[in-house]
Amino acid sequence: xxxxxxxxxxxxxxxxxxxxxxxxxxxxxxxxxxxxxxxxxxxxxxxxxxxxxxxxxxxxxxxxxxxxxxxxxxxxxxxxxxxxxxxxxxxxxxxxxxxxxxxxxxxxxxxxxxxxxxxxxxxxxxxxxxxxxxxxxxxxxxxxxxxxxxxxxxxxxxxxxxxxxxxxxxxxxxxxxxxxxxxxxxxxxxxxxxxxxxxxxxxxxxxxxxxxxxxxxxxxxxxxxxxxxxxxxxxxxxxxxxxxxxxxxxxxxxxxxxxxxxxxxxxxxxxx
DNA sequence: CGATAGACCTGTTTGC
DNA sequence: TGCAAACAGGTCTATC
Length: 272
What we know:
- Helix content is 24%, strand content 23%.
- A hairpin with a 3-residue loop joins β4 and β5.
- The protein is an alpha+beta fold.
- A five-stranded mixed beta sheet has the order 2-9-5-4-3, with helices on one face. Strands 1-7-8-6 form a four-stranded antiparallel beta sheet, covered by helices on one side. The chain has a two-stranded antiparallel sheet with strand order 10-11.
- The structure holds a DNA duplex.
């Protein structure tokens, strides 16, 4: 489900409700959701009676920083939802729940792929997937120069921009949208992009992600923000989910194919 | 190094 | 209509 814009929307919504609040208790309904520590009782005991200092995002990870130098690192994968409420709510796929001063934080996850990991700040530097994250695409670090440094080999440009060690937070929906906006064929070997195309791609990534955040994310089926609401960005997608429909630039039929195992929609005429 | 398939799960859509 | 296959926002592992 969530890519950078969705996770960003969730974190923005959680901040005012979680920061400075005490965690009274934790309940875990699916043990496999908790990836660290292995012992659930240990997990619960370490969190109880701590205060949340800050809620931030890194790539698609949510980082809840506690006052005992521990971090709750949460990844929603495909169907995870993190919803805050000051009322009791019913969820069909509730995997964990945090009882706070003033309300409840629910972790609901249909497919059980989502993970919650409790790590000491020193362990973050070793955590697989997390410590190798590339730059934030909406930061100044993400530039033409940065991408040129990272480019090597002949893999398709779509695989390259989905690589989390290159760009933190880009996922399948927005990768397709960015390549369409930049008029670049997703199958192009990444080392064949010229300077102009790299500039177009960098600009397209910033544009697409910024707009998606303004629209509070894309809701196809499962994504919800921290209040349980839907996003609006699905109304503005130009290629994702539009396989076999007409290209909004040239009117011809869009093409759908698998690249790197992921469904990819693009225009054979507009994207060179 | 990279590409690919399988694994992890459940729910919904598609196709015969 | 009915049921099985295919597919879904993600990422890790094994294998060639």
